[in-house]
Amino acid sequence: MEIWINPACSKCRSAVRLLDDEGADYTVRRYLDDPPSAQELREVLDRLGLEPWDIVRTQEPDAKELGLEEWPRDPGARGRWIEALAAHPRLIQRPIITADDGTASVARSEDAVRDALARRG
């Protein structure tokens, strides 16, 4: 199990605290210091069952600067969105937990973290 976090994020800290409380075996990836590649993002999106625009933090200054609200949200634009997330990792919604069963979740709630814990191998 791996969790992508920004240590400054309260939701990330809460998720890590819950993982610790449950004795989970996991690794932490500070994704702003170690940004995921476009390929890693594709893999995580497949595991999430989501599209890149579904995990974008649209209120971030980078999103506004890039004009993401105006970008098409269709299969033809998917690569452009993924490249933007790879180039601007601050845009990625957090925390993201990749579970041992091959799935992943955007773990912004305690229930989502518990769901990921339930999918441990």
Automatic annotation (TrEMBL):
Domain of life: Bacteria
Record's keyword terms, sorted: Oxidoreductase
Signal peptide: none
PROSITE patterns: ARSC
Pfam families: ArsC
Gene3D superfamilies cross-referenced by the UniProt entry: Glutaredoxin
InterPro entries for this protein: Arsenate_reductase, Arsenate_reductase-like, Thioredoxin-like_sf
Family to which the UniProt record says this protein belongs: Belongs to the ArsC family.
Protein name, UniProt field: Arsenate reductase family protein
